Fold this sequence. Notes:
Enzyme class: transferase
Number of helices: 17
CATH superfamily of the domain at 443-598: Histidine kinase-like ATPase, C-terminal domain
CATH topology of the domain at 443-598: Heat Shock Protein 90
Strand content: 15-25%
Catalytic activity: ATP + protein L-histidine = ADP + protein N-phospho-L-histidine
EC number: 2.7.13.3
Structural class: alpha+beta
Protein name: histidine kinase
Largest sheet: 5 strands, mixed
Number of strands: 17
Membrane topology: Multi-pass membrane protein
Strand order of the largest sheet: 2-1-5-4-3
Radius of gyration: 61 Å
Shape: rod-shaped
Helix content: 40-55%
CATH class of the domain at 443-598: Alpha Beta
Distance between the termini: 63 Å
Amino acid sequence: MLRMLRGPVNTSYTWKIMISFVLVLLIPVTLSAVFIYIRSVQYVEDQSKTALKEALAKEKENVHQIFNDYRKLGSQIAQYPLLISYFDDLYMSDTNKIDFSYHYLNSFMDWVRSLETTEYHFRFFTANDNTFQNEWIYHSKPYGNEAWFEEAIQATYSAPYWENLHKARILDYDKVKNPAIRDQEISLFVPMLSYTTNDRNTLLEIFIAPDAIFGGLGKMEEFKQGAVFVYDSVGQLVYESNHHPAGVLSQLSSQLNKAEQSTSNFVTKVGSQSFLTEIQTLENPNYRIIGMFPQNLVIQETTKARNTFVVCLVAALILMILISYVFSRKLMKKIKRLVKVMRSVQKGNLNTQVVIEGNDEIDELGKDFNRMLNRINELIETVYKTEILQKDALLKALENQVNPHFLYNTLETIKMMAEINREREISDALTSLGAMVRYNLTKDNRLVLITEEIEQIRSYCSLQNLMMNGRLELVCSIAEQIYSLKMLKLILQPIVENAILHGFRNFDGQCVIKISAEVYQNNIRFTICDNGNGIEPGKLRALRERLENNHKNRLSPGENGIGLSNVNDRLKLAYGSCYGIEIESEMREGTRIYISIPVID
């Protein structure tokens, strides 16, 4: 491994493939796993926060309903007509008071006693000193200068007033004076209006134990393993569950100072433990209900899933390494086999082939290499046979060039004798024959101008016309710019010769041969057509097969190279397999031959 890190260029291809596979798979899988884990933890936390929020919001509504119930109770008591009449009569005699109390007030107090519990009590503070004082009725004058009473008077001017948590006020007639029973209370003050003066001459106080209002919070299942706290509008702790961890209150107080006054949530840290904290705000009266739940319990299930996933990830990594190793070995086997064949070819063995066992990219490379070897062998064979044909052509040319001046002089002498004897046709024939011989024997180069090739055909047709009594007509439709291009010598003349010898055999009408040429896609396409007999379908098919076979099996040195096969082979050898001859023919309609060659300036 250290060697691979120091010199990655010299590392074996097998290890490179293995490392690439592992990295390509491991990095995305690891990143995906981390992302999924973070998202799952966040999802679980969000779901837990939502559940805690909904549970606390539901309990907040219960607390709000309790406050409303006490407010309704206070309104019912404060609006009781007999009580208002009793506190409104400033001149009632003691006898009437006793009689009123016996007949009316006692029945009302019996109903009040049935409502009272150890969780809440009530009493009246009246400005009417003409009333009897007892555990429920107190004269307000002795308390007029006390702050709590002044605040209650001012706050209840138009509506009931909730006093924040305060130390229990033990008065003279209270039956329950034990501080252990009555420690802290929350008071509701409700004004009672006089029928005669429409003034608030009496205050109803309902003092309630905090557990009577908030006790249900400590019974919430969602916070059994956490804690619940209630703070009033001045930041005073009103209620706390009896199972909260040590140190929570001090830490929570600092967090509350930073938190918003509205509903919010945050994480509270107490030592090494973190708590999801949810705040619900209660209005009129203003309280903040705070629920705390251990964060480690929220992600406990996620932690188990994470551990399971880590084990699966490690197992998957080992499996990926094994699979990549086996796969790379198999892949390298193909590559090594291909390299072995290449080295064999490098040493000169062109008859070897790559063994193909599949259809993947390495196998495609092997197929291409095999095709390349086959093409090289074909080119070698083509070059070899071309050289043989060139040597044969050179020998024939040397044989034909034996003393050409003697042949020229002889033809010239015969021509002059014909002119002396006024044999014009013989003189013209000798002129055409001389031009043909000169073209065949003096043009040693393989390439000639197209105009020279056409002139050669004109000379040949002029000779043939002597035997055909002038029935042969040659029509050339070739653009001027094509005449200046070059082509192989003796390509068109054998085609015209075949048309005369075979197409016009036993043909009585006017014999017409048309030669045209056009340039397309950097190629020249010649069309030689006649109006002769045409070729029978069977013979046409055999002729096409012979042309194709002659291209694959070259003519042996002893065979005659003149004709369609010779022209077709010379074209393919000189220009490539995409060039050659195409034949179309119909009986009694004539024959059409197409020859394609590249444009050569």
